[in-house]
Batch of 2 targets.
Target 1
Amino acid sequence: MSAPLAILRRPVPTYAVSVTGGKGGVGKSTIALNLAVAWADQSARTLMVDSDLGTADLNLLMGIAPQRSILDALGGVPIEQVLVEAHGITLLPALNGSYGLSTIGPNAQRRLIELVGSLSSRFDALVVDVGAGIGAVQTALAGATAHTLLVVNPEALSIANAYACLKVLSSERALRHAYIVPNRITLGVQVDEIAGSLGALVDRFLDIDITMLPSIPFDPAVGMAAELGVPLLVHSPDAPAARAIRDLAYAIARTAPADLPWMR
């Protein structure tokens, strides 16, 4: 049985995490969404930000069709008219197929970060789902929150891309610490391989510390929930991956300092 999130009972500390992966397809959106649901299940008022700005998919994973997006909020639409509530969490949605939103410049990036930061008094937890890649927009948002989570699969390419992501975040955002989440694990030895390979590269070339968090097993229930547009923790709360994500939520609440500001 997963450990209870006793630390998240009222008064709830404020946690702000960005979830990135360096590349697409590693499962970061699934982990980000269900991490938010796990915290919300423990009475934390939780804000989820889809910062995969031009190719948003959180709305699909949640089975909703928002009428407005971050673009509207940046254009002056009151934030209350943009936020959407579903599955116990509040979503600040992005857009799918929006070139303009995917290429916003530094000023708009800063305004977005300020907008999210302005909501800190209304929520106990923030989860930012960062778009794939290591471009300017992704790097700015991945390095903007108090804590950065990097999702890594056992494949060599995923490990290489995770290192590339850490390298850019270190050089461009002065990131000095990141949490590593091994995902789609089928054998326990794969976690050790990720820790060893990535740790060796980081220790040799980067001025950054990494902390390994509980791993998430490969689980067919993840794909089934995604096809139905329902978060895994709602669709299959007792599935192995769902139990592991609750353990992950507990580990973050227990390990990550809660007295940091939401945004760096």
Note: The beta strands are 15-20, 46-51, 84-86, 89-92, 125-130, 147-152, 177-185, 209-212, 216-217.
Target 2
Amino acid sequence: MTSDANTALIQKLRLGASISLIALILLALAWETILAPLKPGGSLLMLKTVPLLLPLFGILRGKRYTYQWSCMFILLYFTEGVVRAWSDIGLSAQLAMLEVALSVIFFSYAIFYARLTRR
């Protein structure tokens, strides 16, 4: 693969990881406040979005180390999505499946970005 093609692929992976992480943050926030909160009016479960902010700036800046550790970190959200998709019903189960999809997308982009940017 040529250097230009490699650079273009790395930029696409970075963009995909950034978009999927931001979408996951917005989904988690909307899910627990508006769309299907555990309690009417929202719940403290919306605080699960706060840890997603930790890797955000490193992901947006393209920091390889952030991509590496966030691959393991995002698996917590994958696990929560699988459990809630299995145990919840209705809209909450559908949102959980979307959380699973976004976490898999982020994981895929981030792991390939980390691999392609190694020295």
Note: Residues 3-116 form one domain.
